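ARCHIVE CARD
Drawer: 12
Card no.: 0347
Subject: one protein chain, sequence and derived structure
Cross-reference: see card 0346
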Amino acid sequence: MNERIFYAAISSDGYLSGPNGDMSWAEKYLASGDDYGYFQLVSTSSAILMGRATFDFEIESGVQGPRPLPTYVLTHIPELYEDIMDANIYFTGGEIALVLELIQEKHPGKLFIMGGADTVNQLIEANLIDTMRLFVCPEALGSGVQAFKDDTAYNNFTLVNEKEYSSGIVEEVYQRTL
């Protein structure tokens, strides 16, 4: 079975992005020089799973070039991306457990889950995340896209590690307990 790791930066009040999907609040923390374990996670993972909104954000932000890993994008409308010609990007949808089975079959090993909120909440509801690595930024947004529907997202997880970075970000690592 794939180890499934959700890795995300969130605001101190639990938002993945600000109003209208604004991520500029998080970009200033990336300038600190820390990679927050990103390279190690990518280099030990076999595939990436992300939602359509996260993929759209990457496109709008100018993220281009070949993907470091096979990347699965959850979407109900794959025809929106028929112009994308990257053999390492797969557009998929349907029941989340079946999507994970497909990924495991084709790319066994660690699965890096990049988000967004809809994707992670589907996985939490189906009890399909093993580890959450949350990078809590010292900034409250007050509105935007919340990472989790409610506090029950943490019910099946135990905080196993915390680390503070010079940028003020606190990494919280949660392991599934059930």
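Annotation on reverse: The beta strands are 4-11, 15-17, 45-51, 71-74, 89-92, 110-115, 131-137, 145-146, 157-164, 170-176. Residues 28 and 167 are 9 Å apart (CA to CA).
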